[in-house]
Amino acid sequence: MEEVKTKCCFNCMYFNNDPEYIERAFAGLRVLGSGYSSVKRDDGICQLDDRYLSGYNVCDGYKERE
Amino acid sequence: MEEKKAETTPMPHSSGMGWKELWLKEDWWAVWLGLGIVVVAYFFFASGSTIKPIAIKPAKWHTFAQLWSDFISHIGAYAANFIIWLVIFSVSTAILGFKQSEFIPSFIFVYIFSVIIFMIGAWDKAHNYNLEPPLVALALGMIISNVFRLPKWMDTGFRVEYYIKTGIVLLGATLPFTLIIWAGPIAFVQATIVSVTTFLVIFFVGTKALGLDKRLASCLGAGGAVCGVSAAIAIGGAVKAKKEYPSIAITMVIIWAIIMIFFLPLVSRAMGLHAGIVGAWVGTSEFADAAGFAAAQAYGTMAQNLPNIPGTEDAAVWGFTLMKVIGRDIWIGIWAFVLALISTMKWEAEESGVRPSPAEIWWRFPKFVLGFFAASLLMTAISSGYTLEAYNKVVKPMLVGPIKTMRTWSFIFCFFSIGLTTRFRELTKTGAKPFWAFTAGVVVNVILGFILSVLVFGNYWSSLGK
Hints:
The structure holds two protein chains of two kinds.
Chain A: E1 15-16, H1 19-25, H2 29-32, E2 44-46, E3 51-53
Antiparallel strand pairs in A: 1-2, 2-3
Chain B: H1 21-24, H2 26-46, H3 64-73, H4 75-96, H5 100-122, H6 133-147, H7 160-172, H8 177-209, H9 214-238, E1 241-242, H10 244-271, H11 275-285, H12 289-305, H13 313-326, H14 332-347, H15 359-363, H16 368-383, H17 388-421, H18 432-456, H19 458-461
Helix pairs in contact in B: 2-7, 2-16, 2-17, 4-5, 5-6, 5-17, 6-12, 6-17, 7-16, 7-17, 8-9, 8-11, 8-13, 8-18, 9-10, 9-14, 9-18, 10-11, 10-12, 10-18, 11-12, 11-13, 11-18, 12-13, 12-17
């Protein structure tokens, strides 16, 4: 039976919350912060909408990651 | 809607990491390492021994001959100290996903310079020239990173937040839990007054006077009022900020935090303020834990070594910790939850977002603070079995003292890394309006922090460390 993925940013091809990617994306984050911190939780960047948000969101532009 | 090709990057998490964060977040590793050092130190102590030999630090020196002689006679201890730090940090960062071919050589670089910085601080004339280790570490790091271009891969070892969080857990072991109970409520009241006022100043100056987007103003406000860069990205994610908003807030926090590392201790020294009062002032008016500890530690060392500055090093560091960690840091989850609610219910034109859950308050809680509390509780429980005389004669030199030295190492790694990662040419340009909104908050924050720390609660904070 094919796995049905929850429709949310986590499973969207445009969303990336990899900590290393986040640290490269936000200049200066490493100076006094970290992409591996608890306060960041699982937030990531939506490359479609150019926003930084929680992976539990969803929008009309959702496209499931292969 | 025009389709955008997603950037090819490592596969991100396909769902929230949940409890995997126990080994995938720096906060939790700071807890494991910090508490691990405290527990090992206690086991050695309980068996009649001590970790003091490998919790090495340079002795006070006057001539280079003395410095060299001390170093050579303890070179085995320095080697053991280095190996312990290298093993615990490399194992944990490997599990976090860092390339060890990058981390290990980078950490060796950090350690070598940390030894030099520690030695400079041990010079008997250092304090006459403001050569406190945190300030030297920061300045040296900034010179190296801005004048010489280090290879990018070395950033892997410059883990500011990881080192400071580990240090804060170790700090817990040297801060009595009874002090947290006694002083915590006052710290909370003072910190809340300043935090809420600062946030509202930045938010309303930003939105009403300067026409900034509410989400940008929120990131700036959180960065200036709560806990700096960490708050900027936490609130950025909570309010679904445009990608450049957290970057702008990060730049503002870094610029002002670096300025305050030097400004607050030097102004306080000119005024001869008590170390406990300055700790509290730094705790309300610095923007990030790492920067704040640099300022508080610098002033604490001045107080310890200069006769015209009242108070102790402990008073400065405790005052800062109570104000910043307990008064501000632990509430970030609540700020994120409230702002996420406001963003979802009031600011969004269409309800495409998910309503935030109160669980945000736990998941965004800075978990290293749990380690701080645990270390404090553990050490307080151990110490309660000793008289004050026995504590000062035995526990302090054989158990608490070595843990404090290990904390100092972790802090120096952090302060040097701040300097090494502060590359002004790489920071996001902010524009004038965000700069002035944030700066309005800085001015109010510093003045209000001074009034509360010095004038209103001054007697209270000056009794710390007695």
